[in-house]
Amino acid sequence: MPRLYLNMMDKMILNLGVLLMIVVLGKNIASASRVTTDPVVFVQRNTEAELKCGFKYKKAVSSVTWKKGETYDDAVEVIKYFMGWKTGPKFNKGYDLADDNSTLIIKNVGDEDAGTWWCTVVVTDPWTDRSSTNVTVTVPPIPPTITQCPNGDPCEIKVDKDETNYTVTCTASGSRPAVTLILYQDNKKLDADPQQRQNADDPSTYDTILEIPVNLESDKDEFVITCEAVGHHTLPASDQRAQQVLKIQRSQNDPTMSKRKDDEENPEIGSVKIGIYAGVGAVVAIALIISIIIAAFVVSSRMQDSEKHDYENLPKGFRNGLCAKSPVYQSPVSAC
Which residues contact 23 (CB under 8 A, 6 or more apart)? Predict the structure, then answer.
């Protein structure tokens, strides 16, 4: 009897130990298998992007599902891996899974891909875990342009030799997030406060504008102004920084420069001048035409007088012969 009791106690202890090991091991497996994603991801519009979904014990995975929505309950399924098959409403419609069957591939990133994405992993029927990642879609800016340089580099302008300042305006358009603009004068950074506004053609992007008067109070004859746009750090290196250079040169004793500058700054005055020049030109042309007509009339009169004088000085018999043969002389001489 005592031996049987001990055997029963041994079996109970053994079973409890096995059960305890299963519970502990199960907790460790569950803890080690948690799903991980990048909390924040920046992807560039019109490019291919990948969203990682990491976990351990992949051999035990039965399904991986990617959904999109601000909350998990409201999220809509996009693509799914289930028991060796890829499915989902958008599978092969711009979205796919990589060879690991967990990494989401967005083949052509659009603005609609911005927001919260959820990766849900099912290891066994009772065990499910998920993680989310927030996607921001970036847009590289158009290279900066200086207003005075519509045709790009190289760009040079001339100012009056007595000019003391010149206002430079630089713009970087159509970026998300907005870029930072920096203005340099002869490699020295200028203090300025860029302004930002929505782009007129694409309101989801931004324009950055920097306008600043450049000090020209120096004996130098040339000033080099550089406008640099600094984009988001996640953009490709070729899109992170771009520049445009403007060279401001003093005019050397050019008396027409100040007049041209006045006309550019005061277009109404320039229009009045053009009108005056056009009026003077018209008057001169009319006077010239009148002068030509008068000159022609005078020459014609003098020719007729000369012919008449020559006719009257001819002998009478000769004159009668001319009257009979040539009607030209009948007009100025009534004797014919």
Answer: none
- Tell me, what DSSP letter sits at residue 212? E
Mean residue pLDDT across the chain: 78
Tell me how far CA of residue 306 lies from CA of 116, 206, 294, 313, 332, in angstroms.
107, 86, 18, 11, 10
**Residue 41 near residue 96 (C-beta atoms within 8 A):** no
How many angstroms separate the Cα of 99 from the Cα of each of 47, 84, 96, 138?
20, 11, 10, 26
Within 8 A by CB and 6+ apart from 210, the residues are 169, 170, 171, 181, 183, 192, 194, 195, 227
Gap between the Cα atoms of 121 and 127, Å rounded: 9
d(CA 330, CA 336) in angstroms, rounded, equals: 5
Q: What whole-number distance in Å separates Cα of residue 330 and Cα of residue 332? A: 6
Q: Residue 334 corresponds to which amino acid? A: S
Instruction: Return the residue matching tokens 């580099």.
Output: 153
- Is 170:146 a contact under the CB 8 Å cutoff? yes
What count of residues does the chain have? Answer: 336
Task: Report how far residue 50's alpha carbon sits from residue 95's, in angstroms, rounded to the nearest whole number.
Answer: 10
pLDDT 10s digits, 184-241: 999 899 998 899 999 999 999 999 999 999 998 888 889 999 999 998 888 878 778 8
User: Given the structure tokens 């569950």, which residue do they identify?
Assistant: 30
CA distance 96 to 79: 7
Q: How many other C-beta atoms are found inside a 10 Å radius of the C-beta of residue 295?
A: 10
Number of CB atoms found within 10 A of residue 98's CB: 13
Beta-carbon contacts of 146 under 8 Å, excluding residues fewer than 6 positions away, are 155, 168, 169, 170, 225, 227, 244, 246
Looking at residues 42-64, what average pLDDT do you find?
86
Angle at the Cα of 222 (from 221 to 223), degrees rounded to 5?
135
282: which 2 tokens? 């018209």
